[in-house]
Records
---
Amino acid sequence: MPTINDIAKKLGVSKSTVSKAFHDADDISETLRKKILETAVAMGYKKNRVRKDDPRKLCVLVQHLDWKDPAGFGHDVVLGFEQAAVLDGWEVEIPEISKEFQTQISYDAFMLSRSFQGAFALGFSLSDPWMEDFKTAGTPAVLHDNYIPQNPFVTYVGVNSEEGFDLAVSHLNRLGHTRIGYLGGDANSFIVRARFQAYLRAMERCRLPADQNLIGRSCFISECTSRHLPRLLNNGATAILCEHDQLANAVLVHCMELGVHVPKDVSIVGFDDTAFASCTTPPLTTIRQDQNALGRCGYYALTSLFHHTYISSLLLRAELIERRSTGPVQPGT
Amino acid sequence: MPTINDIAKKLGVSKSTVSKAFHDADDISETLRKKILETAVAMGYKKNRVRKDDPRKLCVLVQHLDWKDPAGFGHDVVLGFEQAAVLDGWEVEIPEISKEFQTQISYDAFMLSRSFQGAFALGFSLSDPWMEDFKTAGTPAVLHDNYIPQNPFVTYVGVNSEEGFDLAVSHLNRLGHTRIGYLGGDANSFIVRARFQAYLRAMERCRLPADQNLIGRSCFISECTSRHLPRLLNNGATAILCEHDQLANAVLVHCMELGVHVPKDVSIVGFDDTAFASCTTPPLTTIRQDQNALGRCGYYALTSLFHHTYISSLLLRAELIERRSTGPVQPGT
């Protein structure tokens, strides 16, 4: 591994300048700091020998999720991670990182600059610049709901979507439903694709046709409810699986506006079991992700990477929570 | 949850008789003991309130694997599990369990009778009677290389086969190989099927045809080498992926007997990186499973089940170990 001296030589700067870049000092320019950090990363430099009084620091990187809202998805995942990490004596920071920020500095260089030893990343879409960085990153990262093939320093943690949709489709099938539709996003996101594929496979396993006329996909919830929902209902869907609870709730509201009764006319199933799922009208049948456990497992997977145990994926069981938005299919439909 | 009293009432025996069955006492008949245990399990009884002086006991259940041989697959998996468990103050036992034994008592009743709180099971094939029990078991179990859908008390731990075969097929493809064959078992086993499927998908991802003329499958290594190997070679295979190292080694030996040079005439890849893989002639290129890490992760997954963190699957990264049994495809082949 290169030393600070090697990096200084390569760039024609002093050792103390390199050291300043690593410790986020004020008296070097931002441009030089970044150049030093990116060069260090490119040369394979790692801060192995942490000074005794250096804090042991991890970070949680959150994109596209309102993790600060206790009712939103992400809050309890972050909490579970923090609780486990703090118990083991780690400091946990949750730095602001925008898409633009990610274009300015690479993931590895950012981690080096802030002395973070590992990251737990939530909510990243495939268009986030650091998703490209994770393919070759050398600083351990655990990604919630994102999978990077073949880089041993990056782990995928999530819930078993296939199992979740199997449970939901079997539940609806037992209630007599065969025309089971799907509403979801079409964003450039690993988990959006994974859930849609899980729906298709669950239908196949139950020997039910996944009819294009019963499938609606759009990035915009409003388009799902105003355009796709009426189409699915007209095409005879007696049950609809929604990619996430927020969408399912919007569907419930829109059904009420259309005078369509849930579950008499159509059964609705969500995904996540977010805090509001029991408070919708009617209360939502949904597939539960144990959010706190996801955070705890994220922490375990991250520390495993520190100890050379390279976990590729860790998936939690999904659980079907039966509430009142699903019911038996009506005779004659 | 039913009490000892409830069980005694149901069977018309005394409480002390039930207690004797639970503590493996000598002075009740084997038939009555089994009846009591199976009834207790059927009624949903669990030994929750362990007495203070009761040892905390886990077991490792091994089938079809010579785990006692340090060179065999399984030895280091068991060791990794034991090391992690003992550090946490558990006693670990490795009871003898034959197929016949499994027909005599259910998994849950066995665990209850021996006061084991959880099991780590290795090497089970789909024809092992307890594989059926695991579908509904209430006593936590972690299965190496076996997946049970939808029972939250059972976790699958293994290595990511898909990733392993991706690495191997890409490696061979970079060496110019396109006619890449497969030799493996056709046993009634989850992992035998999973590895074959992983081969097919890896070929698909590399846009290479998985030609039936280049595939040989049999339970018997001798049939793979004497019948399938010559057929694959005649059909123009320039590289062969083997389901496990033992088979790969037999293939190497047989190639030598046939006057076929490895890797000049054919490249051979194994799976597992068992202890002898570096000592074959030539040393074997293979896909590594970190056995000790599998054991450690097995322990983590098992204790997670005790704490209501229901892990569905935990897969380790596979790693390609390049040795001398693979080389560039020869011009003109």
Note: The radius of gyration of chain A is 23 Å.
---
Amino acid sequence: MNLVDRILNGETRAISRAMTLIENGDSQSREILRGVFPHTGRSRVIGITGAPGSGKSTLVDKLAQAYRQQRKSVGIVAVDPTSPYSGGALLADRIRMSALYNDEGVFIRSMATRGHLGGLSRTTYDLVNILDASGKEVILVETVGVGQDEIEIVRVADVTIVILVPGMGDDMQALKAGIMEIGDIFAINKSDRPQAEKLEQELEAVLSLATRPDGWKPCVARTIATQGEGISNLLQQIESFELFRKGSPQWAEQRRRSVEESLINLLKESLLEIAIQKNGVWDRIQAASHAVRDRKIDPYSAVEEILRNLK
Amino acid sequence: MNLVDRILNGETRAISRAMTLIENGDSQSREILRGVFPHTGRSRVIGITGAPGSGKSTLVDKLAQAYRQQRKSVGIVAVDPTSPYSGGALLADRIRMSALYNDEGVFIRSMATRGHLGGLSRTTYDLVNILDASGKEVILVETVGVGQDEIEIVRVADVTIVILVPGMGDDMQALKAGIMEIGDIFAINKSDRPQAEKLEQELEAVLSLATRPDGWKPCVARTIATQGEGISNLLQQIESFELFRKGSPQWAEQRRRSVEESLINLLKESLLEIAIQKNGVWDRIQAASHAVRDRKIDPYSAVEEILRNLK
């Protein structure tokens, strides 16, 4: 049986193998993604994002356990800011720590954030599609931070949970601003901390001012992930958003726009590939990189020269 | 006098104007950047990065003040994760809070993280070049978080300071891993907290294992930014790295590679622009975005079809 069929069959080894090929940018990966694509679109994809120290992984663990209790199969893609220095060790630690380690109904993948040709968000999208095609009913995508790349990652999600923690300091306001747009649900984790009340009030105030194009009013859920508190409430809110989203034409348009952006990115990558295959182009880029570094020519003129030579 | 000359003259209004044009992706901005480019390369660019709540802005403030005491002119580019919802207000707050507000030797610019054509790191690079050409001797670039985009931003810096804070939680290890590569100097801020000792030991342990291609051994500085403690030590470490870097051939090569990457990005953008100007291409992308969203075709095949039509 070929790899695509084995993925559709839900075989763990096949899923892992395909993910490795995708992460390595292997030439086979496009064929695989093409093969699985018609079988995608059935999973519920939940994005979970929050700063380091917000208890993200614990919350993901508890959510996964809750879905397992509902007998749903679960896939987890964790986008970790690991570097070549320590990636392997962290991955192993992470998996060992999880209560889900020995559960065959759960597939966990940690993804390094560096070295993805075509960007982190595309690789995430591809891995989610593999899990989707493999029949996972729920897919949890966990990302760190508030960078633009993280914001793009959550575009693959049907619903996005943003985790905030009381007492994270004065940059909190800025953080909230940056993630306002991407959060469908806000979880105040570690909500037994004294400043939880204050954070909730501030957050409600910010949320009451914002108007989303789709009309959804983001809700706030208090959690203490380490104790499993607030998880069932969170599940209900996810359910509510699902109901809303399925009836929302704006949501469908939003999704289309996000697909449009990834198509444009893919197109850019392909155009570059085609250009670089032409004789001498790579050498010209190399030469230009020296000249620009030494400030003999500005980057815009350098690229224009390369383009003139392309024609 | 034209805008470029006024920038080279160090006129604040001209700098602001140019930055707005760049941030808006105005067609004049390339011409301006071309004009200023031959006059760049004289500033010392210092990148400062750290998670929300790490006291980044305060540290930037104190560093700026210290350089002002040395009678150096200072430019600050703060890359804030603000959204259209609250960007303006946050910017105003930020500037009002700063002790540097009334100092004419300091130019402060807050930059939104969204909506930059060609990416956040390119816009940052462009703004830094404007400040550089305007004669600012020191440029501080402040970014939040550990995303890939943030990592790219620090590539514009001659030296990068990563801020860590004791007791930020168990995701700290992952955070450290992701930023290991980009930190030339690590500042342990809020170092009067009890876990400072532990963090320093952990950090030294991680740093002792890592080998950087350029041979630099990243150093650790304790700071309490709110009280101005450790700032002069930090300045010395910046000085040490400057001395090291200027004699390092690997550093020059590293810089070339980072220029190469930005040239490639620029080339991709230009290739896309050229493609989209052709008849019907934009319509085809639109149609494909519907088809892919509705899973009638996979993104890879959709883009290949567009490419076939281009030829």
Note: Chain B touches chain A through 85 residues (CB under 8 Å).
